[in-house]
Amino acid sequence: MCYLGLVVLNKMKSTFDTDRLMMRPTCEEDAEFIFRLLNMPKWHQFIGDRNVNSKADAAEYIKVKMDPQLERLGFGNYTVIRKTDAMKLGTVGLYDREGLEGLDIGFAFLPDFEGQGYAYESATALIDYIRLNFGLNVINAITDKRNVSSQKLLEKLGLNFQKMTLLPGESEEVMFYSNKA
């Protein structure tokens, strides 16, 4: 259960922050925000249509797609919140994705909050949090070959392009990045 930017914690599911941002596990009370995020034109273009057509669909998506990994691994998708005004800006997460070796870092922000360093700041904080609390050092990522801004951010995070890969059930290959030497 979460409320007003706070999380009732169990296991290792907790918040982490930077000077400007707080990241907390995404919960069903974020459904309206997740509905907006998953229906952005860039989300559809670079990530795909998740058939989330209402706030109720978004709540179900959180429950079915996000909560199970958080319960199983103790980490997953985090809502990124600006501390100064509690505005939900985007999401950052580490995902155990079918058909992909290792864990996959991902991020998405509402258009008004792009280009302000929030994605880099939250992704760096997530990587540090995961290393410190879970001992995970190898981080992978996938991105659409047309998503140049995502590619640049992944490289800034220390990940390098490794290969093109095809995920199960998909028809187009994506770029696979890793910080693995």
Structural class: alpha+beta
Largest sheet: 5 strands, antiparallel
> Runs with pLDDT <50, length 5+?
3-12
Mean pLDDT: 91
Looking at the overall shape, the CATH architecture is 3-Layer(aba) Sandwich
- The total tally of domains equals 1
- CATH topology heading: Aminopeptidase
Number of strands: 10
Figure out the total of helices.
5
Q: What is the highest CATH level, the class? A: Alpha Beta
- CATH H-level superfamily: Gcn5-related N-acetyltransferase (GNAT)
Strand order of the largest sheet: 3-4-5-6-7
**Order of SSEs:** EEEEHHHEEEHEHEE
Shape: globular
Q: What percentage of amino acids are in beta strands?
A: 25-35%
The radius of gyration is 15 Å
| Fraction of residues in H or I helices | 25-40%
How many angstroms does the end-to-end distance come to?
Answer: 39 Å
Q: Please, could you describe this protein's structure?
A:
- The chain is α+β, with helices and mostly antiparallel strands and 181 residues long.
- The chain has a single domain, classed as Gcn5-related N-acetyltransferase (GNAT) (Aminopeptidase).
- Helices cover 33% and strands 25% of the residues.
- It is built from 5 helices and 10 strands.
- Strands 3-4-5-6-7 form a 5-stranded antiparallel sheet. It has a 3-stranded antiparallel sheet with strand order 8-10-9, with helices on one face.
- A hairpin with a 2-residue loop joins strand 1 (2-3) and strand 2 (6-7).
- Helix 1 (31-38) packs across helix 3.
- The N and C termini lie far apart (39 Å).
